[in-house]
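job 3f2a | input accepted
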Amino acid sequence: MSRVARSTPTPARARTEARSATSVPGAAALVMISVFASFLATDNQILKLIAFALALGVLLDAFVVRMTFVPAVLALTHRAAWWLPSWLARLLPDLDIEGERLARAREATEEPGPSRDPVALGILANVAALKRHHEA
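job 3f2a | predicted structure (136 res):
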């Protein structure tokens, strides 16, 4: 979904990203639901109640909230969904989770290729961002 934040958010783009982002969380939710449901076969009533509540909570969160409400809200709010107050943006560090700074650093080097360690470049980019954050 972070790709939607960087691109022009249209309802079609939000639907496409929502479809591509649902396979892993959906599979994880199904595994968790099956594990919790397996505890329903026990004789302990407290354990049955907890297992049922957890399975229902995971089901609602994964399939109703994350696959229905979140894409709908993103489609309705467009860029407003990604708005961040400037005072909060100054407080939060700008970490490069997806490697955008790494790609820019690799393009800026004279000798692109295996001679530059991509992990080291990513670490250096994040350290520089943290230093800028703490100096501000």
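job 3f2a | The chain has a mean pLDDT of 81.
job 3f2a | closed
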